[in-house]
């Protein structure tokens, strides 16, 4: 049973290192299967967000010698959801949790993508210059 867990961890780590590969695989695979490129793009974003969260958390932990990476990301997501929920409640009078979750997850894709690029550049620079 342990080998299954280890295999899953290795597959996740491999896919998370270069997140453009799973994005393209899901996008073109689902796009060819369903024919709906818009839905394929959204699904590829959702899958890649999960991979980017793990990768950005590990990059943050390694670069800054911390263990706050994942917790910081979750904190940002929860604060964003709270702020969006407040705005939605004040404007419409009710809260649509599904819509808030989808918005936060999709914004997280762009945010994690930006953090991935920045942290990867910092990590490469630190290893190149032996800082």
Key words describing this protein structure:
131 residues; mainly alpha; 5 helices; globular; DUF3397; membrane; transmembrane; transmembrane helix
Order of helices and strands: HHHHH
Number of domains: 1
User: How far is the first residue's CA from the last residue's CA?
Assistant: 40 Å
Compute the average pLDDT. 91
- Overall radius of gyration: 17 Å
Total number of helical segments? 5
- Amount of helix: over 70%
Tertiary shape: globular
Share of β-strand residues: under 5%
Major sheet description? none
Assembly type: single chain
Number of strands: 0
SS-derived structural category: mainly alpha
Uncertain residue segments:
none
Keywords: Membrane, Transmembrane, Transmembrane helix
Protein name: DUF3397 domain-containing protein
InterPro entries: DUF3397
Pfam family, one: DUF3397
């Amino acid at each position: 049973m342990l080998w299954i867990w280890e295999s899953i961890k290795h597959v996740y780590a491999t896919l998370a290192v270069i997140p453009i590969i799973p994005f393209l695989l899901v996008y073109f695979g689902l796009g060819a299967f369903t024919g709906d490129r818009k839905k394929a793009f959204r699904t590829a974003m959702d899958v890649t967000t999960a991979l980017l969260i793990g990768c950005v958390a590990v990059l943050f932990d390694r670069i800054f010698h911390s263990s706050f990476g994942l917790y910081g990301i979750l904190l940002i997501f929860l604060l964003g959801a709270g702020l969006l929920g407040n705005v939605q409640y004040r404007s419409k009078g009710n809260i649509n949790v599904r819509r808030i979750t989808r918005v936060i997850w999709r914004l997280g894709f762009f945010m994690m993508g930006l953090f991935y690029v920045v942290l990867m550049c910092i990590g490469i620079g630190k290893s190149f210059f032996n800082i």
